[in-house]
Amino acid sequence: MREEGRISGWQLCMLVMGFLIGTSTLIIPVGPARQDAWIAFLLAGGLGVGLAYLYTSLGKRFPGETPLEYSLRVLGRWGGTILNVLFIWYAFHLASLVLLNIAELYTMVVMITTPLIVFIGVMAGLAALAARAGLETIARLAELLTPFIVLTMLTLNILCLATPNLVRWENLLPIMAEGPIPVVRGMFDTLAFPFGETVFFLVLLPFVVDPGRTRRPFCLAVILVSLLLSSVLVRNITVLGAAESNRTIFPSLAAVRLINIGDVLQRMDSLIIFIWTFAGFLKLSIVYYIFVLGTAQLFKLKDVRPLTLPVWLLLTFFTPHVYENVQEMLVFAGRVWPFYFLPLYLFHPALLLLVAKIRGVKGRGA
To answer: What values do phi and psi take at 306, rounded to 5?
Structure first.
């Protein structure tokens, strides 16, 4: 292992929650389910618990090892190496997408005349520092930020409810007007983003103090975030309507901007931008660290720290070319990502677990 730090079950729960919230509230999609998007999200959360069960089953079978280590024993040298390279690529691609989401928010809403590359370079550099500090530092950051993020999101929901004539519950009707097919499509999209992205925690499970007790905090985090983000979807739909939520690039920002209680509590958009910054940076730091650690294990390096600076440069120059504009990003996230990401978040761990059981391969500490 190229990491000596250890984290607790509580820290794992905070890491998973912060990771799932990440940029989800920034571009949380209504999608084909429209006014039933919150139902699709809850169903996807239920399937996300199933994914958590799958990932923790692998973690229990191979305690103290990451998938980049035991895949070579399970699938052989060539098969394991191919899967490891794909795993590392997906981690790098996700890091670039998260980084670009954060940078796009600032160039479109906050500092519109500042070049995009400035925010990309700064955020990537901060993530590099976090990765260089190690997993325990990122876990402590999650302990500090995640409760604050959750509390603030709940507060904004309550303020929307308290604003006179803002919430229209009839926007949630009719329920399943076009049948279950749009809800199933929306559920599939949501399963990939954000719940399927927790597959990267396969790299972090070996560092939990008690690897055999990771299932409860992992599943608890998925359930809590499912409920929280479903409430955000309900807020956006009841405030803006399903059609407007679908057209708006940042629907949560548009909804929160309408908060006005006695002409005193208003213009809360700055608060939600802080939330997105903290949550997005936390997710970026986790994926950045996983990519660096996975690359070190792939090439059998003794230390991950020499990789943090080259990865920062590589990510900074690669990220601006991921897509041309925000509309292209939304199309990619809604139509391409669920299918593009499917081999990693479902087929990869299922194949490893199935072959390991058939061949009777277990971890050295099992």
So the answer is: -65, -15
Q: Can you tell me the distance from the alpha carbon of 35 to that of 13, in angstroms, rounded to the nearest whole number?
A: 30
User: Per-domain residue ranges for the chain?
Assistant: 9-357
Q: How confident is the model at residue 84 (pLDDT cuts 50, 70, 90)?
A: very high
Helices 135-162 and 9-21 pack at an angle, to 10 degrees, of: 50
C-alpha to C-alpha distance for 50 and 61, rounded to whole angstroms = 17
Are 330 and 30 within 8 A, CB to CB?
A: no
Structure confidence by residue, pLDDT tens digits, 149-168 = 999 999 999 999 999 999 99
Q: How many CB atoms lie within 10 A of CB 138?
A: 24
In this structure, of 244-258, 276-290, 322-336, the range with the lowest mean pLDDT score is 322-336
Strand segments (E) across the chain: 260-261, 265-266
Q: Which CATH superfamily is domain 9-357 in?
A: Amino acid/polyamine transporter I (1.20.1740.10)
Distance CA 185, CA 176 (A): 13
Whole-Å CA distances, 275 to 19, 40, 153, 236, 271: 13, 24, 8, 16, 6
State the pLDDT confidence band at 295, using cuts at 50, 70 and 90.
very high
